[in-house]
Amino acid sequence: MSLKFNCPHCGGEITTQYLKTDETAKCRRCGREVRIPANATVTNESPNYNTPVVDETSTGWKIDTSPSGRFPTLHTLADIIRVVGWVVFGFSVVVGLISGSLFGVSEMVIGGIILLYMLATSEAIKVFLEIEENTRGTKELIERIRSAFAEKKD
Length: 154
What we know:
Layout: E1 2-6, E2 13-16, E3 24-26, E4 33-35, E5 41-43, H1 72-99, H2 102-153
Helix pairs in contact: 1-2
């Protein structure tokens, strides 16, 4: 059984499977945490998300690894570097074909090396962004587990 309701901030539809009314859920559309209202609709639909759920005791703990929209400049920079790499490579191929000499072949090789360097740089930026997102999600999970154990001790 799931609870379904709309986010009071953005109107996005939220479906939670393991949480109960008056508990906090995170809206996947706007990212805000909202309380599940008492008038939430009970449904048999499963939530549509790709994050792992830890539900040993029906606490609703989950690791939120969805893209959070953090560091948009770095995401854009990685895409720009990738596009510039392909443009430089295309330019070097055109120059190489026009010249038709040994110089042209070396232009294409240099363009290919620059392309590989720029693709690797772009991919490294994206990998570091994913590592940051996963680390933040793991930290949130650890904090929830610690607070749950602290509540059980009291």
